[in-house]
Specification:
This protein is of the alpha+beta class. The protein has five helices and ten strands, in the order H-E-E-E-E-E-H-E-H-E-E-E-E-H-H.
Amino acid sequence: MSSPFPGMDPYLEAPEIWRGFHHSFADEIKAQLNAVLSPRYYADVEVRTVLEEVGVATTKTVYPDAAILETVVATPSSATAVAIPAAPIQRLAMLPEEHKMRTVQVRETATDTLVTAIEILSPVNKRGDGLHLYRAKRKSLLRTDVHLIELDLLRGGERPGWEVKEPPLICEYIVLVNRAFCGDMRRSEIWPVALDAPLPLCPVPLLPPDADVPLALGAVLVQVYQRAAYARRIDYTLPVPPPPLRPAMQRWLAAHLAPPPAPTAQ
């Protein structure tokens, strides 16, 4: 079963779904690119860990990578042990939360040279220290001969690229292609995507003189949605995850997801 949305599904932005979606979306892009790239290139996924400070909290959802280990606290064996009163306040002191970030990389087969980086932005890329770290990485890439593709499929947070911030773009999602080999100035090709529109066919630039290869983002989304069985996991009668939709898209969504009218009696 397919998503009821023509393009990006905003219900996939829910935190409990996004982590798995982000992982699967990167893997599916890798698979689709390897199906169309010439033997001169290959696509792979780079995984890196980003730590985000979450401070002190009384409750927090933890997503372990492997297993939850139960720790047994030993009790004193001596019958004469002195009872020590408990502290009057006990709180959980949270360690920095780990986020697994994925970048799809297109590399030249013979030299393993990085040709194109496809960044699928996550919430940590669009807020706080994570935003500053990603902007630093972005700036470093733009100073090299690497092509940069940014897929911003999240409505929340701050857009990291200045070319999409000033002036701001009135849309829900953004696909951006920034090509190398354009002299001192690097120009970004930008596809603003509204909630009621399909995801675009994204060009993936390569080394000269090779032509771009197409990346069908809509087809990637369909594959991920169906393989993860999101249709049975998402309740579309619930409100869209935050942030709120702009008024035009609220009206469109209300009409789009409205149940069909009951048949009239003959």
